[in-house]
Fold each of these.
Amino acid sequence: MPQVAEIQPLIISSVSRCALGMVQSWTLGSNASSVTQSANNISIMVPFDLTSHMRISHVWWVNGGTCSGTVDVGLYSLDMTLLCSLGSTTAAGTTAVQCTALGTPYLLTPGYYYMAISVSSSTQTFYKLPALQIGVAGWKMLGCGQVASNHPLATGVTLATFVESGTARVPYFGFASEDIS
């Protein structure tokens, strides 16, 4: 009789190999930490490349030490069309993964996309990737961007240069095929 292994949930995140996973080697052993978003209503955009189909049904992020306001996580095509998003959702659960179901699951096909996260409050904290030794220029080089006045996430936005803050850090967030909390 063949062995049957448990199927693990599929996860795409800002630190997946298909996104910014390679930057971990650039952080010189630094740890992630709880950091505020530099301003409210700004969405952080992280590019990723998907090589196979994936049905996403949940979005997630890692709250830091302070939960304040609402968060939205979504998916954009390269032309900045909003494909799906959670919608404005109250941040809850300090120093914990917050995972929430999308209203309707979405089937991703192979291709290039942007994942986006935005927050309504400048005091909300997220666990974020360590600051790159090469600073903001490094995030620009990796294709990250931001959009001002984009909470909740909207369609047809214009991607601007990534300047998130002096430390320029990207939150841990992403999509999953099931609840991972």
Amino acid sequence: MRGFRATTPSERRCRPAAGSRLALRSDNVPARLRDDRAPSAHPTLRPVGPHRPPGRAKSAWLSLRSVGLHRVRSCRRGGQVSLTLFGTTHDGPLVIAHRGASRVAPGNSLAAFEAAIEAGCDAVELDVRQTADGVLVVHHASRRRGIPVARLTYQELVHRSRHLQPRLDDALALCAGRIGMDVEIKDEGIEAAVLSLLAQRFPLNSLLISSFHQTVIAAVKRIDAEVRCGLLVGPTRLQGRAGRRQAIAVDWAVGCGADALLPHQLLTRPVRATRRPEAGLLDAAGRAGLPVIIWTVNGPRRMGRYLSDQRVAGIITDLPDVALDQKRRLQNSGAILSS
């Protein structure tokens, strides 16, 4: 086994920003591409820059220090894994509840976040938009009954919704000090407002900010370079680029300054045409020093495969209780050894 050290800020600044900087604007994934039993496809980190030193062998140890997650020890399949988030050490890859425990309660609701906390999840993922009257609201869809959320006041949005759409501040008040948070910024231009509100309850370097928009990640980094960011990448954005999709996704993340990469699970499959194991996205991200958190993983077999893979820093799932059970079984079987 070999050890990888974390890249330094100076190395990151020297890293060439290869690849396109086009923003990833859509998280709409056709039903045929969605994970089994997933109610809707959901995106859900940033390459802070630099190029890993040349000559690096395949990863046996993977440092997640650049995003505040530390993998103390690991091996290619299984091994002792320890992750630190919000000052708490977690055994094995992170289990992040997609919009909270969204199969127990409505997604992005306070009830769903509370259920995720009670289940023992490592973090909750939630979506943030801004209403016409400047309220930061936890809401996934860009429209409500055909009207853009950005054109509705908060009260109008609540009136058009089936359940109460919580304000971001309400969600932060519920989660602060109890669970980690992956805050997905859905719209460009609201980065400063989101960070200002987050800073009132969390140290900004203890949160994960994610987005499909490369411009959002870059804007967050300009405001505060210490904020941990992850770039979300969906399968539709890379359709027709099967031969280079791994390199393109990594280049996007590096180019916008993300600390980690959050790909849809379908993008983690190896490219058959190359017949090279290292051609897979997980290995490409590892060589670039990018931790990988995969979404939206709901199938038990896939959960087991990702949770036991040392290249995976975590999974985002609609079924956190199932994922946590899978993780415990893997730890008990020795596939993931507790620290």
Amino acid sequence: MKKPISAFIIGLSMLAMFVIKPAGLSAQEPRPTGAPAPPRLTFAFELRVRVGNPVEVGQVTHGRRRIVPIEGGTIKGPMLNGTVPAGGADWQTIQADGFTELDTRYMIKTDKGDLVYVQNGGIRTAAPDVMKKLLAGEVVDPKLVYFKYFFTRKLIFVKETHAFALFPGGFGTHDEACEALTLLQTGKSSLMPVVFVDAPDNTYWHDWYDFIRRHMLQPGFISPSDLHLFKVTCDLDEAVEEITTFYRNYHSSRYVNGQLLIRLQRLPSTAMLARLNHDFSDILSQGEIMAAAPPGDAFDEAPHLPRVLLWFNRMHFGRLRQMIDVLNQC
């Protein structure tokens, strides 16, 4: 059964090109000198498309390929009007857990006859039971897929990711950066690599880092080890290495009866274990750091992996990140 999609999300990237402009300034008016007027948002258009039944292609390298054909649609608004010709599609790659990568490509034909090619990328994920219904083509409550509250979106954004790469931006960029760092610093989210990436000729994040050191570290608002929760660089290769190195040996972690269990690809040697107990005794509330060979317990998501166990004090997460960096040398 064909289903209409109202206010289809794929129009959002086009929307951003039209709606952000200084208040009271048209495209034809000269830009005034002095302080710029604050920007405002203006409704540009609404895009509606008709989609056909999904076509299951089969297994590909990174998951299962599904194609949802776009059979036509309309675009209406004060800034753009036209149609969406048939022939576009949403090329979906569905991973084993239902996490779906979206790659939507289609055309817009304006009332003046101009053709505009549009390509949008995105992701879709939800709770396992909801994803099962979505993939089966069943109707689900939109609130189970789309976020109504901004803080919920940010929380899930941190929870479901494996790394952060942040580039220069506005208030929203700083908001999400500080949210992520706060969750990592307080242990409300699992540790992961966070990289602030500058262009080679730009000092945006390096200036931010200087501010952090001068106005947070020096007065004692954060600890020196908190600076190990992230990395600032203008080298893309270094940024990639920061992310991939974090998972060279480290796999994941969880708490078991009060102890922190760190899953690894390879067990540390006896000498390495002695080094960990010597260098990181300050993060222990009791006992020593111990190694354990697989298998794990029945509740372990990866029982085949070796692990280390420690009575972590749940305070010094920057120091814990330093310990993981050492484990990644194994």
Amino acid sequence: MRSSRPASIRRPAAPPRAPARAYLLLEALAACAGVTLLAVATAIGTEVRGGTVRVEGNLDFRGTLGVSKDVPVGFREIRLRFKLESPEQIASLIRLTERYCVVLQTLRSGPLLETSYTASAESAA
């Protein structure tokens, strides 16, 4: 099972370049959906012989980069697509994968999120 997304991310050995922050969310969804799909397949006794999990998203980088305050930050749309090689019980497999994929359910439910910080004495000086 492979996960893919529309753009590749190269992870250089050293700074200054890092993966595009926005794509980390898509990677997390693809990975979680793929692992969950395989776990569900095992649980219901069906075999997935191969396939891909693809996640695509639409966002306007003008918001993320602070170019325009009128443009929202983050993805406006995310699409999760499965392409599987003739598995049995595909409807149940996908339904249960969606139900138990933690990242998918977290994105759908929009949980409360709290941010906090502490400053050490060294950084305050």
